[in-house]
Design a protein that fits this description.
The complex is a heterodimer of chains A (255) and B (241). Chain A is α/β, with parallel strands linked by helices and 255 residues long. Helix content of chain A is 39%, strand content 24%. In chain A, the strands form 2 sheets. A 6-stranded mixed sheet of chain A has the order 6-7-8-3-9-10, with helices on both faces. A 4-stranded antiparallel sheet of chain A has the order 2-1-4-5, with helices on one face. In chain A, helix 3 packs parallel to helix 5 (139-152). Classes of the chains: A alpha/beta (255), B mainly alpha (241).
């Protein structure tokens, strides 16, 4: 289980997280939505210790992430896969080498590494791309390799940072299907940070909206779809005027 | 003052990551080739022309006042003690320092450094230690070869363009030779290598702001590297000469 406890994070004068609290249960996929620059990715990076909170804490299976020493952090990160917004593939390495790097770190047998690379690429429908360099791949393929690199570690948790940003609708749908397939096959707990509501509805068990550094609302996909909260409604419908519509709706009309 | 503190903390973090030998040992050989072997052409190019100029310059200065075999002395001392380490150091501050800062800076802004961390690697052990060790080990090798070639170039110039025989050049070369001339130059080269690599890594890993940030930090790494070479050059002269 991943728990954000009253997390505060500031960059200079900008307060990004302002008492952010959220609980991600084992086995579920939690989607965090919010406006661009609302701190979604910042929250995600706290889970793997890429950022430390100014106040509050983030716990993974009971361990306070920012209290871990280097060895503890290494152990924690071995169980978490992170899919970056722009894939963050090592551009001097082939696809195979990108996948092998984390596996070699875990000192696995070379045959197991070979199998894992093959299985992971098969899971994202990229068999045969082993010897390509990232520069030779399309944006969608890079995201899939990024996902394959994360799942090759067979993590307990998978964190996705804007997995469909910058992709066309069809490729976005493919990525969404891959995320669902990954969860079904590997049974991982996931956190997906996105502002793509199609993706959020497709992959999430629950959705939390981050607004002004705090969770504005958290609920199942259906609860969020039917929300009466004007700020959440405005965001999920992508209509700036949605908030006003709700506030001015005549009696008898559901708000 | 705060920059000095951050630099000290970075140095401490890199020092602690030395214990992660399983990460950096295999990567150091690759960096030694990139930093050392691939720097040889520019270093040797500089050395040849420095040797030629030194021989002609000393002959011009000594004419009529000092015996001409002192050309050998001047070429040898100047190449070993100063010109080979400093000229090669300055050239490599550009080649190696810029290369490291740009590579690590690009990795930082494209989240490759974060990706390394999420794969349970310590970026200092994976990126900094191999480069710092390789530069510290390979700069003296490159400077030693440059020194040798520079002296040969000076000798070749002296016997072909000046009225000086080979035995006289060698006599001058050996006249005030001390072993300290060699290790002093190589010690300086080691310190230059370490500082250039550390500055390149520090600037690269602290890059912010995309391509513009990479350019800014790369330039800063080269400028600071060149400045530190001159500072260290004076420091070693004061301390050891």
């Amino acid at each position: 289980m991943i728990v954000f406890n009253d997390v505060y994070k500031r960059f200079g004068a900008k307060e990004v997280l302002n008492g952010f609290s959220l609980e991600v249960r084992d086995g579920e996929t939690m989607v965090i939505i919010g406006h661009s620059g609302s701190g979604k990715s910042v929250a995600l990076k706290h889970v793997v210790g890429l950022l430390n909170p100014d106040a509050g804490d983030v716990q993974v299976d009971g361990a306070v992430v920012h209290d871990l020493d280097r060895d503890g952090l290494t152990a924690l990160r071995s169980g978490i896969g992170f899919v970056f917004q722009f894939a963050a593939l090592f551009d001097s390495m082939t696809v195979r080498e990108n996948l092998e790097l984390g596996l070699k770190r875990q000192r696995l047998d070379p045959r197991v590494i070979e199998e894992r690379v093959h299985e992971s690429l098969a899971l994202v429908d990229l068999e045969g791309a082993e010897d390509k360099l990232p520069a030779e791949l399309s944006g969608g393929m890079r995201k899939r390799v990024g996902l394959a690199r994360a799942i090759a570690l067979r993590p307990q948790y998978l964190l996705y940072d804007e997995p469909t940003t910058g992709l066309d609708p069809v490729t976005s749908a493919v990525i969404n299907q891959l995320m669902v397939r990954t969860r079904e096959k590997l049974g991982v707990t996931g956190i997906v940070v996105t502002h793509d509501m199609t993706s959020a509805y497709a992959v999430g068990d629950r959705i939390a909206m981050l607004y002004r550094g705090q969770v504005r609302q958290v609920g199942t996909v259906d609860q969020i779809r039917r929300t009466h909260d004007p700020i959440v409604r405005q965001f999920i419908e992508g209509r700036p005027e949605a908030a006003t519509d709700l506030q001015t709706a005549p009696p008898g009309v559901e708000r | 003052m705060s920059a000095l503190g951050r630099g000290g903390q970075f140095l401490g973090d890199v020092g602690r990551s030395l214990r992660e030998t399983d990460t950096w040992v295999s990567l150091t050989a690759v960096q030694m080739r990139r930093i050392g072997v691939q720097s040889l052409p520019i270093a040797l190019f500089i050395a040849v022309f420095a040797g030629i100029v030194l021989a002609l310059l000393s002959s011009y200065s000594f004419t009529g006042a000092v015996p001409l075999y002192f050309v050998g002395t001047f070429v040898g001392k100047a190449m070993m003690l100063e010109l080979a380490p400093v000229l090669v150091g300055l050239a490599l501050a550009g080649r190696v320092g810029a290369n490291i800062a740009a590579e690590l800076g690009t990795m930082r802004v494209t989240e490759q450094v974060d990706a390394l961390e999420t794969l349970a690697f310590n970026p200092n052990a994976y990126l900094v230690v191999p480069r710092a060790l390789a530069a510290t080990a390979m700069f003296p090798v490159v400077v030693a070869l440059a020194t040798g070639l520079g002296i040969v170039a000076g000798w070749f110039t002296a016997i072909n363009l000046l009225d000086l025989s080979s035995p006289d050049f060698v006599k001058g070369l050996r006249l005030f030779y001390q072993f300290k001339d060699v290790w002093f130059g190589l010690l300086k080269a080691m310190s230059f290598g370490f500082v250039i690599a550390m500055i390149g890594c520090y600037k690269g890993l602290n890059t912010r702001g995309g391509a513009e940030g990479v350019g800014r930090e790369t330039t800063a790494a080269v400028v600071m590297g060149a400045e530190m070479i001159l500072v260290l050059d004076a420091f070693w002269a004061v301390v050891l000469l």
